[in-house]
Amino acid sequence: MLKILGNFKKYAFCLILVGIVSMAASFWNSARASIRSNGADLQKSNGADLQKSPHASSVISGIKVIDINLQADQALFYLLQNLTSPDVRPGGVMASPSRTSPDYFSHWVRDAATTMNIFVTYLEKGSPSEKVVAFKLLSRWVDFERTLQRLNTMTGLGEPKYNLDGTAFNGPWGRPQTDGPGLRAGVMIRMAKILLARGDVSYVRNQLWCNDCVIVRDLEYLRQSWRVPTFDLWEEVQGDHFYSRMAHFRAFYDGAELAGIMGDVNYKNTLAWLSGLALDELKRHVDHSRNLVLPTINRVAGWDHKQSGLDVAVLLGILHSSHPGELFSVGNSVIHSGVQKLEDKFAASYPLNHSVKIARTAIGRYPEDVYDGNGFSGGNPWFIATNAYAEYYCSLGQVGAGKAFLERSAYHAGRDGRLSEQFNRFNGYMQGARDLTWSYASYLSAYIACTGKLPNLDAILKGKFKTVRIQTNHKK
Q: Which residue in 151, 205, 251, 271 has its CB near the most CB atoms, within 10 A?
C-alpha cells in the first residue's frame, strides 16, 4: 500500500445494533461511544508523532507482554473505531486517520475489500448478534461502493481511491488499478453465497447480483479491461501484476460459480472461460530458472528498480485470491520458494532482525524498497507483510511458525495495541500512517487462520474491553 502520490481512504457509519435479543439503539450508542473514546489520546497525533509517543513500543529497551489474543481484540477494536468515524460517510472504509505526513485519509477500493472480508467471516461464523452487526457493516459498504461505481471518474471503475464523503478523487495518481474491482467483486460474491445459504435470496438478487448491481458492474468492467496494463498494489509500477491477475482470476472463477447458482448459465460459461484465460496469464509469471513467481511482467511505466524478483505482493495475491488445492495456492512449491527467499533477504538486510531476535523475521515489501512511510530514506518492515507470513504458515498447518510472526507484529505494536503502516528497520518504532486499517485487518485475518477463533465482537460492542497491555518485569 505505498500511496506515494498522495492521499488515503474513507469511511463512516454508525453501528446500530438491531434484531437479535432485542438490542436497543441506546445499547449501540453506548458501545460506539466506548469504541471512539477508548484510546482517544492518539487521535491527534500523526504518523511521525508515533515514533516518540509513549504508545509506540521500543524494541531495544523496555518491558512488554506479547499476547497475540489481546492484540487481536485490540486490532478489532481499532478497526471498528476507524469504521465508525464521524468523519466518514457510512459505508466508507478509512485507510487511516492520518491527514498529513502522510495523508492516507481516503477510501481505497482494494483496502476496503480486504478489510470488509473480515466481516464476511463474522457473517459466516460469528454469534447471532455478531452476524447482525456484520451484515449492517457489509450492507452499508455495498451501498457506498454502489455510489462510487456511478461517479464520473477518470478511469471508470479502475479508480484506486475515492474521497471519504463519497465523491471522486480526480487528482494525479497511479491509475488504473484493476485489482480493486476484482477484490471487491470477490468479497461480495463470498458474501452473496453466505446469504443464499441462509435463504436471503432477495438481498442478493436486488443488491448484489443484478444487471445494475455492484458485483455484475465489476465483472463487466473486468471483462473489458482485465488485460489493460495496471498499476500494482504499491502504486509504483504499471504493467501486468501477479497480485492483480489473481484478483481477476478469483472474480471470474467465483463469479461463474455464483452465476450458476443464480441460474445465469450463459454468463456462467462466459466467466468460466475468462477465468481460464486469466489462469493462463498467471502461469506466465512463473520464472522456472529462478524458481520464483515474478510480481510484475511487461512493465510499461513507473519505477524500474525492482530487480530481485521478490515481493510480498505475490504472497498477498495468494492469500487474498486463492483457494486450497488450486495451482496457485499456499501449497505451491514455487510460491514457497519465493516466501523463503524474501524472508532470508530481510533477515540479512534489516538491522532490527539482528538486534532483536524475538519470534520470527520482521518482513517488508520487497528488497529494493525505499519508501519509509512519508519519504524515501529506505524501506522498513510492514505489519501487513509480517502478518501475511503469519497467515501463510498457519494456512500450511505450520501453526507454530505462523504464531511466531504474529508475535513479531504484536511486539512492535503500540503498548495499547495500535498498529501503524510500518515499523523502523533499525529501532522497531512504528512509523508511517497511524492506525492503518489494513494493518488491523491483516492481523485479524492471520489470527483467524492461526487460531480458528474470531475475536469477541460482542464484548467489544458492550464496552467490556481494555486496550492497555499489562506490563511485567520480564525483560526482553
A: 251
Sign, CA dihedral 338-67-443-346, equals negative
Domain boundaries of the chain, sorted by first residue: 20-39+59-461
- Cα–Cα distance between 400 and 422 in angstroms, integer? 24
Three-class secondary structure of residue 12 per DSSP: strand
| Separation of alpha carbons 202 and 298, rounded Å | 43
- What does the pLDDT profile of the chain (476 residues) look like in tens digits? 434 334 333 333 333 333 333 333 333 344 444 443 333 332 323 333 333 332 333 333 345 679 999 999 999 999 999 999 999 999 999 999 999 999 999 999 999 999 999 999 999 999 999 999 999 999 999 999 999 999 999 999 999 999 999 999 999 999 999 999 999 999 999 999 999 999 999 999 999 999 999 999 999 999 999 999 999 999 999 999 999 999 999 999 999 999 999 999 999 999 999 999 999 999 999 999 999 999 999 999 999 988 999 999 999 999 999 987 889 999 999 999 999 999 999 999 999 999 877 779 999 999 999 999 999 999 999 999 999 999 999 999 999 999 999 999 999 999 899 999 999 999 999 999 999 999 999 999 999 999 999 999 998 888 755 543 333 222 22
d(CA 50, CA 386): 19
Residues 252-261, buried b or exposed e (16+ Cβ, 10 A)? bbbbbbbbee
Alpha helices in 166-288 (DSSP H): 179-197, 201-203, 214-225, 242-261, 265-283
Half-sphere exposure of 91 (CA within 13 A, CB side): 14
User: Between β-strands 286-287 and 292-293, what pairing exists: parallel, antiparallel or unpaired?
Assistant: antiparallel
230 has which bridge partners?
A: 239
DSSP 3-state of 430: strand
Distance CA(11)–CA(84), nearest Å, equals 8
Whole-number Å distance between alpha carbons of 83 and 317 = 24
